[in-house]
Amino acid sequence: MERIIIKGGNRLKGTIKVSGAKNAVLPILGASLLCGGESTIYNVPRLRDVEVMIELLTYLGACVHREDHQLRVDTTYVEPREIGEKLMRRMRASNLVLGPLLGRFGRVVISQPGGCNIGSRPMDLHLRGMRALGATVDEKAGFVWARTSGLVGADIHLDVPSVGATENIIMAACVARGRTTLHNAAREPEIIDLQHYLNAMGARVSGAGTGVIRIEGVDSLHGCRHEVIPDRIEAGTHLVAAAITGGDVTVENVIAEFVEPVLAKLRETGAELAVEGNAVRIRAPVRPKAVDVKTLPYPGFPTDMQPQMMALSSLAEGTSTVTETIFENRFKHVPELRRLGADISVEGRTAIIKGRETLSGASVEASDLRAGAALVLAGLAAENTTVVEKAEYLERGYERLEEKYQLLGARISRERA
Ligand code: UD1
């Protein structure tokens, strides 16, 4: 168990650099299983979720070698071994091996990933996609069994634009016979990055970033080199950290277009934002204005930024609302923010936040990665000392967060509980 200790009240000032995108590298590592070959992947963040994916690949027989932020992945000797509950439960994104293993080997057996802290997150759309491509899929005894004598391209319509289902379907369709057209696909930037990686492997994917993705199946794929895009949620988190402390911070290694939904909201709070190349500078007012936020699939406001935005609203002038439409159970940070003095009530999927002039430090507990980030941000702005327990959640998605914030002038440290 780890905890983060913050003595709040310092304005953040300076420059901070964003690492590679967790949600891009996870499907890319899954996609490496599609062929037997060696890929080199650059700008890979050092995160616990990435380590879990590497463990999973190694379990399947891949050789993964890390040098700092570079990974060499050799998938020559991979076999479609059954993946049990232990590996699947550690991270939902483990399900991103389904499409690649089915595509390459024609069979896969994985444990059902089960629920998680923010909602039930079923896999029905992934499985329907595999069936549409010609696989036989059974669910029994907590496992998914999928097999095929050869996938065949198809026209597929997703009920909701699920990120993971879009990725699994694209990956499997890369090696299916003929053309697949995926309608109502998720448009997240990480899917564009996956398309670039797959095409570098010899695949023929087009349309990522739009709601219609076309995949022409090819006979074989090969290893390649690829640099992962920067993490837009990490960038957004740092921008809100600056905003909540009334700071002046330049966030480097950002693709501004991909964080625009967050930039737009921050402008509404009264922050000045300037984009210069791959950097975004934020100059925040002493106190933000209240704003209304509704989470939506990209290019809407990201659910992964919702808790952080709620922390900011806790200190805003006026009443804000936050409506969560993606996950049914993503308000676990509310009681913790209340412990810091926030005035938040919840009605169904909407939180109503009456901005306070100050928050005051307390002991709080992270319930998941982004909830943990929200509590750290609130702690940066709160009076006195805030202790965030279960800080290990933060390592799933933020590389050296406290070190980065120390460099901006925050009084923050981590200790083992
Ligand atoms: C990805 C991100 C996660 C982010 C989420 C939404 C990765 C590794 N994770 O998760 O950080 O919070 O997108 O932006 O990229 N759903 C179904 N059936 C399915 C699949 C999903 O009903 O088969 C529902 C889910 O319960 C949820 C919604 O669709 O309510 C969105 O989920 P999805 O886009 O699939 O999220 P993930 O890919 O799991």
Structural account:
With 417 residues, the protein is α+β, with helices and mostly antiparallel strands. Helix content is 31%, strand content 26%. It is built from 13 helices and 23 strands. The strands form six sheets. It has a four-stranded mixed beta sheet, with helices on one face. α10 (306-313) links the parallel β17 (292-294) and β18. α4 runs parallel beside α6 (163-173), α5 packs parallel to α6 (163-173) and α10 packs parallel to α12. It starts with a strand and ends with a strand. Bound molecules: uridine-diphosphate-N-acetylglucosamine (UD1). Residues 23, 26, 92-93, 119, 121-126, 160, 162-165, 186, 190, 303-304, 326-327 line the site of uridine-diphosphate-N-acetylglucosamine.
Task: Tell me briefly what this model is.
Helices cover 31% and strands 26% of the residues.
Notable characteristics:
417 residues; alpha+beta; 4-stranded mixed β-sheet; 13 helices; 23 strands; 31% helix
Topology:
Elements: E1 2-7, E2 13-17, H1 22-31, E3 38-42, H2 48-59, E4 63-67, E5 70-74, H3 85-90, H4 98-105, E6 107-111, H5 124-132, E7 136-140, E8 143-147, E9 155-157, H6 163-173, E10 179-183, H7 189-200, E11 204-206, E12 212-216, E13 225-227, H8 232-244, E14 248-252, H9 256-268, E15 272-276, E16 279-283, E17 292-294, H10 306-313, E18 319-323, H11 333-339, E19 343-347, E20 350-354, E21 363-365, H12 369-381, E22 385-389, H13 401-407, E23 411-416
Parallel strand pairs: 2-14, 3-13, 9-10, 17-18, 21-22
Antiparallel strand pairs: 1-22, 1-23, 3-5, 4-5, 6-8, 7-8, 10-12, 11-12, 14-16, 15-16, 18-20, 19-20
The structure holds uridine-diphosphate-N-acetylglucosamine.
